[in-house]
Amino acid sequence: MRVLVLTFVRLGPALVYAIGAVFAASMLLLAVYPSRPFAWALYLTLLPVLRLPLMLLSVAGMGAWELLAAFALMAIFGVYLTFHPKRFLRARFVHAHVALLGLVLANAAASTAAAGRSGASLPGYVDWSLPLPTALLGTVLIIVAALACLFTHAEIIRRIRIRASIDQLLAHRVSLH
Predict the structure, then answer these.
(1) Any residues with CB less than 8 A from the CB of 29 and at least 6 apart, and which?
(2) Distance CA 46, CA 68 (A)
(3) CA distances from 45 to 25, 40, 69, 159 (A)
């Protein structure tokens, strides 16, 4: 059961990228079939969750096809990393954190978009609260990506402790001789 849960959590960032690929595909569907309700429903469902990362990538000169390919490749890479957890810890770390940061930035931008100013905004005030998405899908994705980040941190700390204890044992053996 533990292995199944860890595998699911490790697949979290790949799921984020796969949903990004679906969103890019929905943009293509909407461009080709603008009168289809399914294309609009898919696009509008995923828009609040992934708006900012796609905007940032499109500013870099990527079109919808390139976005689809980039997200699909990142999702495939994430699946590969999931099934080789001991071998590519640093890559899993970066992969998970990029997914989480993209989601948090997207939801921060979506939650601060307003027509007027808030009465609680003061000069120099920084809001450090985590903006949770209004869509259930966004909340689930943030939780799964955060768990993936947490587990990679725990694994890195565990490896550091193992190396430290091995070094301590070796130092003790050398001092005995």
Answers:
(1) 36, 38, 39, 42, 43
(2) 14
(3) 13, 8, 21, 40
How wide is the angle at C-alpha 28 spanned by C-alphas 55 and 70, nearest 5°? Answer: 55
Q: Are 45 and 137 in contact (CB under 8 A)?
A: yes
Instruction: Round to whole Å and give the CA distance between 3 and 75.
Output: 20
Structure tokens at 174: 């050398």
pTM assigned to the model: 0.76
Which residue's structure tokens are 């828009």? 47
3-state secondary structure of 157: helix
The per-residue DSSP string of 37-61 comes to: HHHHHHHHHHHHHHHHHHHHHHHTT
Query: How crowded is residue 99: how many other Cβ atoms within 10 Å of its Cβ?
Result: 29
Side-chain-side CA neighbours of residue 26 (13 Å): 20
In the chain, where the domains are located:
1-116+130-175
Over its length of 177 residues, how does the chain's per-residue pLDDT go in tens digits?
888 888 888 899 999 999 989 988 998 999 899 999 999 998 888 887 777 666 666 666 777 788 888 889 999 999 999 888 788 888 999 999 999 988 887 766 555 545 555 555 555 555 556 555 567 888 888 899 999 999 999 989 998 998 888 888 887 777 766
How far is Cα 70 from Cα 80, in angstroms, rounded to an integer? 15
- Asked if residue 11 lies in contact with residue 92, where contact means CB atoms within 8 angstroms, the answer is no
